[in-house]
């Protein structure tokens, strides 16, 4: 189950995508459903009974359960079979990540190990490194950690000060430096460490805990994710064998940034799972909690919260499985045993850098919204540790900081698109120039009748893309090489792109559901997509207005606002009625309902 052909990263902003080409959760294979059930059973049987002990940061118990997960194959989904893993498709590994979230902080320990900890060796290791480490990482015999951040460098990863110097006999690199906020550091055996060779060439090394000079600092006292280990890694004259250099000297940035791309996507997947959990806890509580002689779920404002939580989660889910499908096709041709596997992997992953950042920003902010509303539904009880939604709320906050802050990702999204256009990889400016003449001649769509299912939403989506091209092209033309200094404008453009990808993912998923399941079974999806597109389109209109006003004035601005007004006029749907209908389904099911 993959998309039929490779899609260019970022092309969604200028092309119309066919619904049949995307991956949706409703078409999972029987094998994929079994993998999801295995993960759910593992969490229920192995983690839930010892949840409180893990939350108190029990290293031994966490490692024991990681190895149990390894026995079941849950740590080897992304590792090729030739190296002891399962070599599963990305949809399957996405399911594992999503279903693991009920394990709370343990899910983070597992996610850091299988994702940013193991994947650098999968994608960039040589044959000897893969044979040596991957089988043991797949079983949990070895636990991995990823070490990029330093006390003085976070988002500015290339500003790292850790150094590596090749000794005289050429057999070892001597590493010195300190890495900070390292997940799994308290019990990890293998560390993926970034350091500058001779203080200048950013490179990557596989460092083992047993190497002399490796030490671990004290645990950080964190707001959330308390059951996961977060410590500094201290390197003092650590002699790392030269064969533990990952890929080549000076290629560390390609490894770091592409692994972060995968990490951002995986983080979004985790947010989907946590959002579903929050909805389940909140819907059950709302049905059980009575006030004024009736359950609070019967009050429209509480029901509206559950509807909004469900809608946001539906869109997040649509985005991450669509992206999983992109990766399945993009990585399908990578030969993991080839000498140039590093170049193959870097190219394949970098193709969807933009989509990974979009997933990360939307899902991390989506989970924050869902968790916050969940606490509100619980009232005072939501502020107590007796109810799980309190932990979801605390744990969710780190996601907007992890894997590059959302602010950094917002700058990356339009920046990446523009770079691709400048390289001739996407005809962005050509499309924008062609559109300029059309926009002046167009008329308002207000009064048009859209009788087909989601026909109006597809029209709004098309107009949203035109709005982006108008604002984005204007920004490029006005600021040219200085555009990177206009962070507010870049952030607005990023938010418009995020909204478009989110809207389109929901529209395409629901269209495909209709073709697969029929209109009746997909009706809830139609309702949720309608509400989301209506509300998100209104947000796009405001962002575009602010952006145009920041760039232009006088007659030029008035002309652009006139065009924007034509593009944004539409008859609104009755979202109040739709949300009531959505809420009733969630309240009845007492869980997330797609």
Key attributes of the depicted protein:
Butyryl-Coa Dehydrogenase, subunit A, domain 1; Butyryl-CoA Dehydrogenase, subunit A, domain 3; alpha+beta; globular; 8-stranded mixed beta sheet; two-stranded antiparallel sheet; 4 domains; 594 residues
CATH third-level topology of the largest domain: Butyryl-CoA Dehydrogenase, subunit A, domain 3
Mean pLDDT, to the nearest integer, reads 95
Structural class based on helices, strands and sheet pairing: alpha+beta
How would a crystallographer describe the biggest sheet?
Answer: 8 strands, mixed
Separation of termini? Answer: 20 Å
Q: Which consecutive residue ranges, at least 5 long each, have pLDDT under 50? A: none
Describe the protein's architecture and organization.
It contains 19 helices and 10 strands. It has helices spanning 30-47, 51-55, 59-71, 90-99, 105-117, 119-124, 127-139, 252-288, 300-330, 341-350, 353-378, 388-396, 406-422, 428-441, 455-479, 487-517, 523-551, 554-568, 575-589; strands at 144-147, 163-166, 172-183, 190-197, 201-208, 214-216, 230-241, 245-246, 290-291, 294-295. The longest helix is centred in the middle third of the chain and has 37 residues, at 252-288. The strands form 2 sheets. Strands 1, 2, 3, 4, 5, 6, 7 and 8 form an 8-stranded mixed sheet that branches. It has 594 residues and is of the alpha+beta class.
């Amino acid at each position: 189950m993959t998309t039929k052909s490779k899609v260019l990263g970022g092309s969604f902003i200028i092309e119309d995508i066919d619904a049949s080409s995307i991956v949706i959760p409703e078409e999972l294979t029987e094998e994929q459903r079994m993998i999801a059930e295995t993960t759910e059973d593992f969490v229920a049987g192995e983690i839930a009974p010892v949840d409180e002990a893990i939350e108190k940061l029990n290293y031994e118990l966490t490692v024991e359960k990681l190895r149990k997960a390894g026995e079941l194959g849950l740590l080897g989904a992304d590792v090729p079979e030739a190296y002891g893993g399962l070599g599963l498709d990305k949809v399957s590994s996405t399911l594992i990540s999503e279903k693991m979230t009920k394990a709370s902080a343990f899910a983070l320990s597992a996610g850091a190990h299988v994702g940013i900890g193991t994947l650098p060796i999968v994608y960039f290791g040589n044959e000897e490194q893969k044979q040596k480490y991957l089988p043991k990482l797949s079983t949990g015999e070895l636990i991995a950690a990823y070490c990029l951040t330093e006390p003085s460098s976070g988002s500015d990863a290339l500003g790292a000060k850790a150094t590596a110097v090749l000794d005289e006999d050429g057999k070892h690199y001597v590493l010195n430096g300190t890495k900070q906020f390292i997940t799994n550091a308290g019990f990890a055996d293998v560390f993926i460490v970034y350091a500058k060779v001779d203080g200048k060439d950013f490179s990557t090394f596989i460092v083992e805990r047993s190497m002399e000079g490796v030490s671990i600092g004290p645990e950080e006292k964190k707001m959330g994710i308390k059951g996961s280990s977060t410590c500094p890694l201290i390197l003092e004259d650590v002699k790392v064998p030269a064969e533990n250099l990952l890929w080549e000297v000076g290629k560390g940035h390609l490894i770091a940034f592409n692994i972060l791309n995968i990490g951002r996507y995986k983080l979004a997947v985790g947010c989907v799972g946590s959002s579903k959990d929050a909805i389940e806890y909140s819907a059950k509580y709302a049905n059980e909690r009575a006030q004024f002689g009736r359950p609070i779920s019967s009050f429209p404002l509480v029901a509206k919260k559950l509807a909004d939580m469900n809608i946001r989660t539906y869109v997040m889910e649509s985005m991450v499985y669509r992206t999983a499908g992109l990766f399945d096709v993009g990585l399908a041709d990578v030969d993991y045993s080839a000498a140039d596997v590093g170049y193959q992997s870097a190219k394949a992953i970098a193709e969807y850098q933009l989509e990974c950042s979009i997933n990360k920003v939307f899902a991390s902010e989506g989970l924050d919204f869902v968790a916050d509303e969940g606490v509100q539904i619980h009232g005072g009880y939501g502020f107590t540790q007796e109810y799980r939604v309190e932990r979801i709320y605390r744990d969710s906050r780190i996601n907007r900081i992890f894997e590059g802050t959302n602010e950094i990702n917002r700058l990356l999204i339009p920046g990446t698109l523009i770079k691709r256009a400048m390289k001739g990889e996407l005809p962005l400016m050509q499309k924008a120039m062609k559109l300029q003449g059309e926009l002046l001649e167009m008329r308002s769509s207000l009064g048009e009748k859209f009788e087909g299912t989601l026909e109006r939403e597809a029209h709004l989506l098309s107009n949203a893309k035109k709005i982006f091209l108008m604002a984005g092209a204007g920004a490029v033309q006005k600021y040219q090489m200085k555009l990177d200094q206009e962070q507010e404008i870049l952030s607005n453009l990023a938010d418009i792109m995020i909204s478009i990808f989110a809207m389109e993912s929901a529209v395409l998923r629901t269209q495909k559901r209709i073709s697969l399941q029929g209109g009746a079974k997909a009706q809830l999806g139609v309702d949720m997509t309608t509400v989301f597109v209506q509300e998100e389109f209104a947000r796009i209109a405001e962002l575009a207005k602010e952006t145009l006003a920041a760039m232009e004035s006088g007659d030029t601005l008035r002309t652009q606002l006139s065009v924007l007004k034509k593009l944004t006029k539409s008859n609104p749907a009755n979202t109040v009625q739709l949300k009531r209908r959505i809420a009733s389904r969630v309240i009845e099911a007492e869980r997330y309902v797609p």
